[in-house]
Design a protein that fits this description.
The chain contains 22 helices and 2 strands. By secondary structure, it is mainly α. A two-stranded antiparallel ribbon has the order 1-2. β1 and β2 form a beta hairpin. α7 packs across α11.
């Protein structure tokens, strides 16, 4: 009862005109930042962090600037889906999985369905995460601490296994795609010895590794554009999608069809979000894989399945709230964006950790209340702006294709200020096009380059802990069941093949 009272007071504080205005402004800025390729929540929060000192001077407290930054974070999670669906370019790494089914729906003239599904799933994912955050923060933080290196590696292995075991694609090609992504993920310096690895042709720019956003924009921006140009008729025009009140109401009524993906994304996204250093990108990709694994029609994924949109969108919003939990209760950032937020809290004289809730309730509860308020604002703004997003699809593709190309280049350069990364992005786009011609699935490679940098250090640190004994992944109470399930999924295609041969 005390939690409900504190939350109610926090929501009332967040609804005060000044705080409400900051939340609205933050959400709008976040939507723009999330939709622009190459920016994302990390850049948005980092760029506007100095501005919060002005807000603090005006408000006289650390709560108002934190509400503003948290609203940017929320808005960016919503905004990433916009360019993923309308242009096929992920606005941020957290929205890559949304491209898999969002873009095919847009090309089929159902961008309204895709955008409304993404908005509603994001809202539900954020709301579920906020409720879990509010009621179980200390307990969930302690559970997150139980996940050591073996447990996190087992979780990464399970994510790969879902694509192999129940992906529905050509299994050898899926394994090749994962292996190719893992190779790209190892480019750079060895995490243990510090020795350079796979520095192709002694090009020093490879020393920082293959940046994920470079790969994502190349594959789903340039690659998708070339594929559309070469597989469509001479006169390419995007299918129009109209939106009115009746359309919104119809899609809201149809949204329960995406309940499974939304539920998976809400739960799994929050769980992955609270794991230190995981974040929303692995959560969204893993949720997509699990939703595909548990679907009755996995072959529809990648062709415009609403669960394929709902799962990653619910997950990245749920994970964004989840990532705030270890930051506030343990002082450990759960994502790159929360690392910037943590820096802001320290600058404002706050000490994140177990005592924050008891010693700074006047800061904590208005901030948590703003999570709920920002979530509602983000849903309303997103639905209201959908006609603007759909306007992009009414442009002839002869105009849209150069726009996609320019946005891809500008987005890549804006993210890293490096011309080499721009050329690398174009090369990835061409490579993705040829892989699609050869019918290789791209999603497993994207998953591998995201999870590879997380999985490799966890694997090596686990083996250092066990003196090279792989049984550590089977004997620990949490890692063991996860590893066994992953092995079963990896072997499942072989079992199915043997079964068919015996029956034949």
């Amino acid at each position: 009862m005390e939690i409900i009272t504190s939350l109610g007071d926090g929501v009332l504080q967040a609804l005060q005109p000044f705080n409400l205005g900051l939340a609205f402004l933050g959400v709008v800025v976040g939507l723009f930042v999330g939709a622009m390729p190459g920016l994302g929540s990390v850049n948005g929060v980092a760029i506007l962090l100095p501005f919060t000192f002005v807000i603090q001077d005006i408000s006289g407290s650390a709560t108002a600037p934190m509400i503003f930054l948290a609203a940017i974070y929320y808005g960016a999670m919503y905004g990433g889906a916009i360019s993923s669906i309308t242009l096929g370019i992920p606005g941020a790494s957290t929205a890559v999985a949304t491209t898999f089914d969002g873009r095919p729906l847009a090309l089929a003239g159902k961008a309204d369905k895709a955008l409304i599904t993404a908005a509603l799933a994001s809202f539900i994912g954020g709301t579920v995460a906020n409720m879990l955050f509010t009621g179980f923060a200390p307990a969930l933080a302690s559970i997150a601490l139980d996940f050591g290196n073996p447990e996190i590696f087992a979780l990464m292995l399970l994510a790969f296994a879902t694509f192999i075991g129940l992906g529905g694609d050509d299994i050898p090609k899926t394994i090749f795609s994962i292996a190719f992504g893992l190779v790209l993920a190892t480019v750079g310096f060895d995490i243990v010895s510090g020795e350079p690895r796979l520095i192709f042709f002694d090009i020093t720019e490879f020393s920082h590794g293959i940046r994920f956003l470079v790969l994502a924009i190349g594959v789903y921006g340039i690659g998708e554009m070339i594929w559309t140009i070469n597989t469509s008729q001479d006169n390419i025009t995007m299918t129009e999608a109209k939106l009115g009140v009746s359309t919104v109401l119809r899609e809201i009524k149809a949204f329960p069809k995406a309940w499974k993906g939304t539920a998976i994304g809400s739960a799994l996204g929050f769980f992955v979000g609270i794991l230190p250093a995981a974040g929303a990108t692995p959560g969204s990709l893993m949720s997509y894989g699990v939703a595909k694994m548990l679907s009755r029609n996995p072959e529809r994924f990648g062709k415009g399945d609403v669960d394929g949109i709902a799962a990653p969108e619910a997950a990245n919003n749920s994970a964004s709230s989840g990532a705030m939990l270890p930051m506030m209760t343990l002082g450990i950032p759960g994502s790159p964006t929360t690392a910037v937020l943590l820096a802001g809290m320290v600058i404002w004289g706050l000490q994140p950790g177990p005592l924050l809730f008891s010693e700074q309730p006047d800061f904590v509860w208005p901030l948590i209340g703003s999570f709920y308020v920002s979530n509602v604002i983000a849903l309303a703004v997103n639905l209201a702006c959908i006609p603007v997003f759909l306007w992009m699809l009414r442009m002839p593709f002869t105009i849209l294709a150069p726009l996609i190309f320019v946005l891809s280049i500008v987005g890549t350069y804006a993210a890293y200020q490096n011309t080499f990364d721009v050329w690398l992005m174009v090369m990835f786009g061409l490579g993705a096009y040829f892989l699609r011609i050869l019918d290789y699935p791209l999603a497993p490679a994207v998953l591998a380059i995201v999870l590879g940098p997380i999985a490799e250090p966890k694997l090596r640190q686990s083996l250092l802990l066990s003196d090279g004994d792989f049984s550590i992944f089977l004997t620990r109470p949490i890692a063991g069941p996860i590893t066994v399930l992953a092995i079963i999924l990896i072997l499942l295609p072989l079992v199915k093949l043997i079964y068919r041969k015996l029956r034949g």
